[in-house]
Known about the structure:
Keywords: Cytoplasm, Methyltransferase, rRNA processing, S-adenosyl-L-methionine, Transferase. The chain is α/β, with parallel strands linked by helices. The chain has helices at 14-27, 49-64, 85-97, 115-120, 134-152; strands at 2-8, 32-38, 72-82, 102-107, 123-126. A five-stranded parallel β-sheet has the order 2-1-4-3-5. Strand 1, helix 1 and strand 2 (32-38) form a beta-alpha-beta unit.
Amino acid sequence: MNITICTIGKLKEKYLKQGIDEYLKRLTLYAKVEIIELPDEKAPENLSEQEMLQVKDKEGDRILSKLSDDTHVIALAIEGKMKTSEQLAADLDKLATYGKSKIAFIIGGSLGLSDAVMKRANVTLSFSKMTFPHQLMRLILLEQVYRAFRINRGEPYHK
């Protein structure tokens, strides 16, 4: 399985990089994982509704340019469907079973994802009703993907 994590913004925090590197290393046993970091759109603090849409659209165009037509897209969004770790594992297993070997998880910038990205998504997934920094979300996502592979292989994992 080829998994891409397409994300807006650079990762600066060393402690998050270390955690992400650890899960990327662990995941090499199960899948090819690539992280694509795209630049966030520079914007002032107080944006109008129209300016926010423009920022999201520009970031969305960058994201969409990295997705091929045969990629199964999972957008991370607060309004998405919440799942248990076991349900995520079952979903990934089904995708593999039905020949969907290219999966992209999309993590938007601080304003969220554009309408175009949300329309392109096959699934929207929420990890919580809470908002997480997109840098931290990468680490949480990688841990859950790793956990999903462990669950699907019947290997022990921390509960």
